[in-house]
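R.M. (postdoc): so does anyone remember the format we settled on? I'll just put the structure tokens first.
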């Protein structure tokens, strides 16, 4: 239904005059955002509204709607919205091929968890003949193998540790819980970027190019850079369709604060109908604003650019990673109260004790980050075509495959399937 409405709306926008184009576009906005609200946020807002009244001693009766959340609704809703908005902005001519448009919206590799593609990039690929490309297929297989490694070896093994620590955080020391937060950061990265790599790789085998969604984000030296590297398809979507529409950065400082906070509030809400996601988004927005104003009113970035030392980069990467890790606690916790209790337990006297659990797994994750550091200028984890020796390349491939089969953890659902 969403695809059919947006296909027809785009056709109508193309044929109407400037006076009514915005009205036609509003049909697409109202329907898509309305469907997303009903399925994903209706119960959340009703319950939040009731809780606010309860705080003032005015309990009200309310009922929830029993909806089954359509898989990937947050992804394909944004994808179809970008199409009608781009037609309205005259960035693309609407297609008359309904089959190609439906295929664009429901393209199976990235349908349920992205990347969130733009019609300007993906739709024309359905309308032209595709020819087998050997190099593109090799790249696709590399991405699939690397994605499986991230998901099955890293994310699924991390999940076993993280689930136990977050469910029983009262029983563990602060140092162990800090390790748990770090491990969750690797879990969600391995889970989501692994899926994205497999989706992009599968698409390449079929002759399609999808946009890059992750670019070694944990090597970011500040939060601005992090959001240029993490979930790139979502961050650029909010930049192009929300942030710029609000005025971007060519505004006064108070308005800039408003624009950034709105974008990250919406980003948090996009991830889930829970106050924990909202607070996670706002925290990122606040730290990003601090970074922006530090760069604006000091010579910090120019200083680091002049002092191009690896140890300074490592310190900045470590600080950024710590901030992101602390914010992940709100993303993972069931409630805000639980998140604060988890954090308070971290910063207790037991923070300075030896962590409990498997130390070797942490060393493995550190080793993995070293590999990412070595590959940071490459397109993806297994982009090793620059290695001239065919034997070494195949040794890397077979070693990766062995690790997947031998150390693959218990099957875990993709985290972003819930969004």
């Amino acid at each position: 239904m969403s695809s059919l409405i947006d296909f027809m709306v785009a056709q109508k926008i193309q044929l109407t005059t400037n006076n009514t184009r915005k009205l036609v576009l509003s049909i697409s906005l109202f329907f898509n955002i309305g469907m997303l609200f009903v399925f994903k946020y209706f119960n959340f807002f009703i319950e939040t509204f009731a809780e606010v009244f309860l705080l003032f001693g005015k309990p009200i009766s309310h009922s929830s709607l029993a909806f089954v959340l359509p898989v990937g609704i947050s992804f394909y809703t944004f994808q179809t919205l970008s199409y009608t908005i781009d037609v309205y902005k005259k960035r693309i001519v609407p297609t008359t091929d309904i089959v190609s448009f439906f295929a664009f919206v429901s393209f199976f590799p990235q349908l349920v968890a992205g990347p969130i593609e733009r019609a300007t990039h993906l739709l024309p690929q359905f309308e032209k003949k595709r020819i087998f490309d050997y190099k593109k297929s090799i790249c696709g297989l590399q991405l699939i193998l690397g994605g499986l490694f991230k998901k099955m070896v890293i994310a699924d093994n991390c999940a076993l540790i993280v689930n136990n620590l977050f469910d029983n955080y009262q029983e563990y020391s602060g140092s162990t819980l800090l390790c748990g937060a770090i491990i969750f950061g690797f879990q969600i990265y391995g889970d989501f970027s692994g899926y994205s790599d497999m989706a992009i790789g599968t698409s390449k085998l079929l002759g399609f190019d999808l946009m890059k969604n992750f670019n070694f984000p944990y090597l970011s030296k500040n939060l601005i850079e992090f959001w240029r590297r993490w979930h790139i398809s979502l961050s650029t979507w909010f930049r192009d369709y929300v942030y710029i529409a609000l005025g971007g950065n060519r505004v006064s400082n108070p308005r800039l604060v408003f624009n950034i906070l709105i974008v990250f509030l919406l980003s948090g809400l996009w991830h889930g109908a829970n106050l924990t996601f909202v607070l996670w988004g706002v925290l990122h927005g606040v730290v990003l604003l601090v970074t922006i104003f530090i760069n604006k009113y000091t010579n910090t970035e120019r200083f680091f650019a002049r002092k191009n030392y690896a140890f300074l980069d490592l310190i900045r990467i470590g600080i950024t990673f710590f901030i992101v890790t602390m914010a992940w606690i709100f993303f993972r916790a069931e409630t805000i109260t639980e998140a604060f209790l988890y954090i308070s337990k971290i910063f207790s006297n037991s923070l300075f004790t030896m962590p409990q659990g498997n130390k070797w797994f942490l060393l493995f994750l550190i080793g993995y980050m070293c590999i990412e550091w070595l590959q940071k200028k490459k397109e993806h984890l297994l982009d090793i075509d620059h290695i001239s020796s065919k034997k070494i390349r195949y040794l890397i491939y077979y070693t990766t495959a062995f690790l997947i089969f031998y150390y693959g953890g218990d099957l875990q659902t993709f985290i972003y399937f819930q969004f």
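R.M.: ...and that's the designed sequence above, right after the tokens. Also worth knowing: The CA atoms of residues 224 and 288 lie 6 Å apart. The two ends are 19 Å apart (CA to CA).
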